[in-house]
Amino acid sequence: MLRNGPSEFGLVTRLIHWAMMLLVIGQLALGLRIADMEPGLANLWLYGLHKTIGFGILALILLRIGWHILSPPPPPLGPRNAAFWAARAAHWAIYALLIAIPLTGWAGSSATGIDVMIADRWTVPPLVEASEEAEAFWFRLHDILTKLLMALVTIHMLGAFKREMEGDGTLTRMIRGRAR
Ligand code: HEM
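^ thats the input. predicted complex w/ protoporphyrin IX containing FE below
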């Protein structure tokens, strides 16, 4: 089934979820790598790759939200206790960060005064005017939000493994659609 059910994840949601997992983990690693580099001709393509993947993640999260309006995902499994609400809050925070992080990267890159491009082909409009202060501010925010995302993604994964080990099928449901 493509659509989500009252307690099942449909194929569209599952594909977007796992594609995003791969992209976000790769993007976090690539981001840490480029933040440690002196930008130059030899590594400019890595910056380009990071920006292109970042716009891809932004498009996917917007697509995911749009899809979830059309086909609402099932709520987390289990009783409505503190763990349930913590899982919900973590999901919302991850969504918000996956929108805010690309926007802060886009703003920081705009502030350098260099054209921001997708796949070396399409130039996107600058979000802010070029200035060194703006560049430092937006990249600092980009850095802080990515650290927050790393912490939340870790908690999210540990939570999923814990629930799966307790036997409620939380992880199985995101792989196969149904909890059992
Ligand atoms: C969800 C999407 C994104 C994630 C997870 C992400 C992640 C990261 C991370 C972890 C860093 C290293 C931060 C640090 O240690 O200072 C970084 C740096 C960077 N990001 Fe992103 N990023 C994303 C989207 C974008 C986008 C859309 C752009 C630009 C259009 C961008 C431009 C940059 C640049 C230029 C740097 C290097 C900053 C510096 O040299 O200080 N990022 N990113």
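Strands lie at 116-118, 122-124.
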